[in-house]
Amino acid sequence: MFKILIPVDGSDLALEAVRHALTLVGHGLKARFVLANVQEPANLYEVVVAHDPNVLREVSEAAGRDALRAAVDLLQAASQTVEAVVVQGDPAQELLQLIEAHAPQAVILSARGAGALRSVLLGSVSQALLGSSPVPVTVVHPVHTD
To answer: 51, 102, 106, 133: least surrounded by Cβ within 10 Å?
Structure first.
């Protein structure tokens, strides 16, 4: 069965990649999915205030699970096999490591995330994956309905 990695940041735009994957399934693709959320590492202020690295890890994990919830729900509602993964670090590097660890046959991701700054950052993630991924990468642009 075809395995597809879909990075999800919790934005509506990220769900476009999930919807695209479901369109492929609707056309006969038999697939299973790994949804990935990459959380930013804790900053110095958070480390000082929290005093406990386990608390920071738990908060990061909870935020990642929350960001993945809608995408997981979409895939499960369509009776698809889905695994959700939350990691912490540089998005492009972490996603490349997830490709290595989970061995998907493809990656589907949205062209950008939420907000102007995130658009630039996630655009750079798309660029990094397009240039470095050992598997095919599909970049999904938002669907515009007029």
So the answer is: 51
Compute, in degrees rounded to 10, the torsion defined by CA atoms 18, 81, 37, 17: -10
Segment 67-93, tens digit of pLDDT: 999 999 999 999 999 999 999 999 999
In this prediction the pTM is: 0.85
User: Hey, which residues does 137 pair with through a beta bridge?
Assistant: 107
* CA atoms of 31 and 72, how far apart (whole Å): 14
Give the span between the Cα atoms of 79 and 60, in whole angstroms: 28
Q: What Å distances lie between residue 106 and 5, 78, 81, 120, CA to CA?
A: 6, 20, 16, 23
Contact 75, 23 (CB under 8 A): no
| Whole-number Å distance between alpha carbons of 89 and 112 | 18
